[in-house]
User: Which sequence fits this backbone?
């Protein structure tokens, strides 16, 4: 897990992904961050200020974009599959598995070199080596149902 420097304002902030692209004489830098409980605009601003300060010596023109990983956070490393076990996910594989390349279900972690996806009462092992992309899937309907249930229980 990439983390920002050990300063109180960056505690718990994880760098989920980075992208750098050179275009029209400038470099575009994009950094995706996350932390438990989510990322707010103030956190993005603090991270941007810290990165900009670190790039002061960089003389070429650049743009910097800091963004939250969001509700459909990408899963980028094996530890993510353990951390988010129990959550609904969407995994796209490079090769067909059981006749499909897109797989949705509940994440059951990692077993050996396979990510385990639970769907319709059975397990689907997906080799880490063939995962093209994976994201958490935010289910608005389930969230609304939980809110209604909480309201009903009051």
Assistant:
């Amino acid at each position: 897990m990439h983390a920002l420097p050990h300063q109180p304002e960056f505690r718990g902030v994880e760098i989920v992904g980075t992208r750098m692209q050179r275009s029209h004489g400038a470099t575009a830098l994009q950094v995706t961050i996350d932390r438990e409980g989510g990322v707010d605009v103030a956190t993005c601003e603090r991270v941007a200020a810290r990165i900009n300060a670190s790039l002061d010596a960089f003389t070429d023109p650049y743009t910097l974009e800091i963004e939250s990983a969001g509700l459909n956070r990408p899963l980028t490393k094996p530890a993510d599959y353990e951390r988010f076990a129990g959550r609904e996910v969407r995994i796209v594989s490079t090769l067909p598995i059981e006749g499909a390349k897109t797989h949705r279900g509940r994440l059951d972690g990692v077993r050996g070199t396979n990510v385990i996806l639970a769907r319709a009462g059975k397990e689907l092992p997906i080799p880490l080596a063939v995962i093209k992309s994976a994201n958490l899937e935010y289910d608005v309907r389930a969230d609304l149902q939980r809110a209604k249930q909480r309201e009903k229980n009051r």
